[in-house]
Design brief:
The complex is a heterodimer of chains A (572) and B (184). With 572 residues, chain A is an alpha/beta fold. Helices cover 35% and strands 16% of the residues of chain A. In chain A, helix 9 packs across helix 14 and helix 16 crosses helix 23. Chain A is globular and about 70 Å long. With 184 residues, chain B is α+β, with helices and mostly antiparallel strands. In chain B, strands 5, 6, 7, 8 and 9 form a five-stranded antiparallel β-sheet that branches. A four-stranded antiparallel β-sheet of chain B has the order 2-3-1-4, covered by helices on one side. In chain B, strand 2 and strand 3 form a beta hairpin. The longest helix of chain B has 13 residues. The relative contact order of chain B is 0.20. The chains are: A alpha/beta (572), B alpha+beta (184).
Chain lengths: 572, 184
């Protein structure tokens, strides 16, 4: 059967189970848009900037665990995707980006809206394609989805010339992909696993550091089994939040620059680190030479290039973490670590994170806490980048996987709104809160129009402090309060939301916080709350750049509210 | 700073060399030379890259190259017993006085003369890097006009190797249980 390239593409997407495409049309892709209505399974959501499409596809992928798809035209459409593709690349998200390209005979001649997007995205895609031959298009789509979703997931870009979309070819959708150079390892080496089990059984002060790999591999039950069987404290990275219920007695928070002091102290004192699906990013380890200096390290990761990249590893295990844990758990003995757990718990009591001081103004941490209370922890929280991101990681307890979505590796401001949009589209039955910084929010604010046009009921909390908060914090702590380029004027966000057709309210008073959140959640549609917060609030604890975990700066002593954790919420 | 010889067997697709050099560039690994050519298997080419850089960076580069979808296999064969060959074409200006002396040097070193003109000869040398270097040094006593050198090709000694041509299948398939499901 002969079909046009455009129809071949759509048929292939349907066969891959694609349900939604975030896109914005242009000249090079009109032939594709022309046939879209013939494929009702493919819902198209028109964004207002292609960066929004890319972040939305990423948010969709993180919330659902399936590949997200974004579509842009050639030239500027494609280049506008770059930040979003890079964000997906650094956080290992399965995203398939489809870009239009000029007609084949015009390529390389600086034609109108022509850009070498495959060249530009070489370092930020897992793989990319420029389709020269319409008859290859079906196989390319199949390969692209396979590559994006297997092994260590990542973005794949398919660049399709306009005449390929128009030209007809026989449509064959292969059953299998043939990629001789790509064979992700699933099972870990049995000898390595045996050695690892031995170390686990001998360790006196073991710690598990769990990262995004657990979520990608869906290894939640296996992680839990290991932790409970051998009674090992579980600490997560920023991207690992949600892989282990934070209300669990063995959950000891997040590691890193703004992680909990007790988590960092535990890692520092440990004699064995079991690193599962995490990559020892510099924000997580602080000064690498001082990281876990008393511990041996077992590193399980599906990507062999990550092992030994940042940190010397004693037992490397390449493989899918779920499969490796299934094997490992069988060899791990039932154990107690009463003394060690008592020590870590003591650190938690002595260095409580969850201190929200009593004060008249609206504190951002307080806002996060109230969102937790109002949702009962049952929500998907999507953040931007900066102080509000750290507070959202610290002051909300995430019990379910895929409930915390944030740009960790790239740290792209503006991620929040489109990614929240993608998450809500992927999980329409879930409450989705977009926690936005006033700076980042303005970067992709135009997607408010998409929320309205496509009726996407994201709840938006703007943490409005009039600053580029995280940079201001660094300027305060390390540059003598030299606030250059960080004071940020903002529009009246409520009026702006209303101009887009979204109701909103402003909160300037502590007592209004919870009612505003409840009002937002009760409203059947997108809603914005502008929280005017304490302007010069800092994120604590903090491990200064270049320092070690032992140099952690904790909250300066002030009037303290007692630690309230999820286990005690019912006592409030 | 160490010199390594990396052999990569890659799919014959446009842009593959670009990807490879991008990875090396990103890790600040310097490319001393690149040679690529057919393997005997129609869809695969063999790329031999001589690189220099800190050992850790070169190792990381090798791992990143292995991750590339179009790289079927990559090995750093520097440590192994290997046979390496390069080729150089050297154009030397000749005078009536030194012409026969130059030709004697060529004969004694068992190099070859591939072109002769009234005032120049072009010498061809093949051999390992040391041999090629030393013959060029000898000829530098005269007036060298131009040198064109290839990169290195290398193959390990004995029967084992980076790419073994076994019937039609180039690389051994991994055991069934270890392969991620390719079928959907």
């Amino acid at each position: 059967m002969k079909l046009s390239g455009a129809r071949i593409l759509c048929e292939s997407l349907v066969r891959e189970g694609v349900e939604v495409i975030f896109g914005l049309p242009g000249g090079a892709v009109i032939p594709l848009y022309d046939v879209l209505p013939e494929f009702p399974q493919l819902r198209h959501i028109l964004v207002r900037h292609e960066q929004g499409a890319a972040h939305a596809a990423d948010g969709y992928a993180r919330a659902t665990g399936r590949a997200g798809v974004c579509l842009a035209t050639s030239g500027p459409g494609a280049t506008n995707l770059v930040t979003g593709i890079a964000a997906a690349h650094l956080d290992s998200s399965p995203v398939v980006a489809i870009t239009g390209q000029v007609t084949r005979s015009y390529i390389g001649k600086d034609a109108f809206q022509e850009i070498d997007i495959t060249g530009i995205t070489l370092p930020i895609t897992k793989h990319n394609y420029l389709v020269h031959d319409t008859s290859r298009l079906g196989s390319i789509v199949k390969e692209a989805f396979y590559i994006a979703q297997t092994g260590r997931p990542g973005p794949v870009l398919i660049d399709i010339p306009r005449d390929v979309l128009v030209e007809e070819a026989t449509f064959i959708y292969p059953d299998k992909v043939s990629l001789p150079g790509y064979k992700p390892v699933v099972e870990g080496h049995p000898e390595q696993i045996r050695k690892a089990a031995k170390l686990v059984n001998e360790a006196v002060r073991p710690v598990i550091i769990a990262g995004r790999g657990i979520i990608l591999s869906k290894a939640f039950a296996e992680l839990r089994e290991l932790a409970e069987k051998a009674q090992i404290p579980v600490i997560t990275t920023l991207l690992g939040i949600g892989c282990f219920p934070e209300s669990h007695v063995l959950s000891f928070g997040m590691i890193g620059m703004h992680g909990m002091a007790y988590a960092n102290l535990a890692v520092d004192a440990a004699d064995l680190i079991i690193a599962l699906g995490m990559r020892f990013d510099d924000r997580a380890t602080a000064k690498v030479s001082a990281f876990a200096s008393h511990a041996r390290i077992i590193h399980v990761d599906v990507d062999p290039a990550e092992i030994g990249k940042n940190v010397r590893v004693d037992i490397p295990i390449v493989g899918d973490v779920r499969s490796v844990l299934q094997n490992l758990n069988q060899q791990v003995a039932v154990q107690q670590h009463v003394e060690w757990l008592r020590q870590v718990e003591e650190w938690r009591q002595l260095h409580p994170l969850t201190v929200i001081r009593d004060c008249d103004s609206v504190l951002p941490q307080f806002v996060i806490r109230k969102i937790y209370e109002a949702t009962g922890g049952n929500a998907i929280i999507v953040t931007g980048v900066g102080q509000h991101q750290m507070w959202a990681a610290q002051h909300f307890w995430y019990d379910k996987p895929n409930s915390f979505i944030t740009s960790g590796g790239l740290g792209a401001m503006g991620f929040e709104l489109p990614a929240a949009m993608g998450a809500k589209v992927g999980c329409p039955g879930e409450t989705v809160w977009c926690i936005a910084g006033d700076g980042g929010f303005q970067m992709t604010i135009q997607e408010l129009a998409t929320l309205v046009q496509d009726k996407i009921a994201v709840k938006i909390a703007v943490i409005n402090n009039g600053y580029l908060g995280m940079v201001r914090q660094w300027q305060e702590l390390f540059h003598r309060r030299n606030y250059v380029g960080t004071q940020l004027s903002c529009p009246d966000f409520v009026k702006l939301a209303e101009a887009y057709g979204i109701p909103g309210i402003r909160v300037t008073d502590k007592v209004m916080v919870l009612p505003a959140i409840q009002q937002a959640m009760a409203y059947p549609g997108p809603f914005l709350v502008d929280f005017v917060v304490e302007p010069e609030e800092n994120v604590y604890p903090m491990v200064p750049p270049g320092a070690t975990f032992l140099d952690i700066i904790e909250e300066p002593q002030r009037e303290l509210e007692l630690t309230v954790g999820p286990r005690e919420v019912s006592n409030l | 700073m160490t010199i390594h010889t990396i052999v990569a067997i890659v799919e014959d697709h446009p842009g593959v060399l670009n990807r490879i050099s991008s990875i090396l560039r990103r890790l600040s690994v310097n490319i001393e030379s690149v040679t690529s050519g057919p393997t005997g298997v129609p869809s695969l080419i063999r790329v031999t890259i001589v690189v220099s850089g800190p050992a850790l960076a070169v190792d990381q580069a090798r791992k990143q190259l292995a991750k590339m979808i179009e790289v079927v296999k990559v090995s750093d064969i520097s440590g192994e017993d290997m046979m390496a060959r390069e080729l150089a074409l050297i154009k030397v200006k000749t005078t009536r006085q030194n012409r026969s002396e130059i030709m004697q040097v060529v004969e004694v070193t068992k190099a070859g003369i591939v072109d002769v003109s009234p005032d120049s000869i072009t010498v061809e040398v093949t051999g390992d890097t040391n041999r090629v270097n030393s013959i060029i040094t000898l000829l530098q006593a005269f007036d060298i006009r131009e040198i064109a050198r290839t990169g290195r090709v290398a193959i390990t000694r004995g029967t084992a190797g980076v790419l073994q041509l076994e019937e039609a299948a180039p690389v051994k398939k991994p055991k069934r249980s270890q392969r991620a499901p390719a079928e959907k």
